Amino acid sequence: MAKALIFLFLLVLPFQGWSYLFLKERMAEATPGDYIVTAQKKTLTVWAIRERDDQKVVVEEISVPAQVLELGEGGWKEWVEKGAPDHTIWLAYAIDIRSGRLLGLYSVTNKRWCEVDKAGNFLTTLMNIGFTEMPANQRRPWNPPVIFEGEEIPGVQLDLFEGKWPRDGSELSEKYIDIYLPAVGSRYPAYFPYWLQVIGALAQAKIRIVDSGSNLKSPVKILWPQTNQK
To answer: Exposed (0-12), middle (13-18) or buried (19+): which is 39, by Cβ within 10 Å?
Structure first.
């Protein structure tokens, strides 16, 4: 009997205090104008918080080939304010903060509304994954660099979280995802991963952050459908 009780204790112990982190919950505290710039292969992408209210957050995605990008002294903010020259993708996502559901998708590039895929997309799926924090004694002693307004900031500790992509038939289906996030309450947005890595792919896919900042203003005016203004 004693051995059985010890076994049950050891079985239950790891789950004490078990909790999940959902990026959609942190998005409820997003500040309009915050942005990150990701690099994947030869493409750079700006992800910016356009607006947020009690029901939704609007995120803009602007991609440009690295080889044609020309940044002036004003950096990414100036580039966006000038209409993002040479961009290949410019989308605006309206996302329900509570459910993480995609409410609307507008193509700035094509100046039209897009059909919302009921299966979701990369951003909304990522926001709905339950992540668990990796204990310090189980993670490798490495921290992704934090770059803010073009300058690398030393000494910023990022927390490592791990989650699993849902079974959806995509290339990421059932793959494990590692993300690094700043601590809540720090100077840096705690809802944007500063590093994302897919484990279990043929070649481990990585999305790294090459810049981040605040006070980015979009020059695009979007009138959301009445259904998204609730």
So the answer is: middle
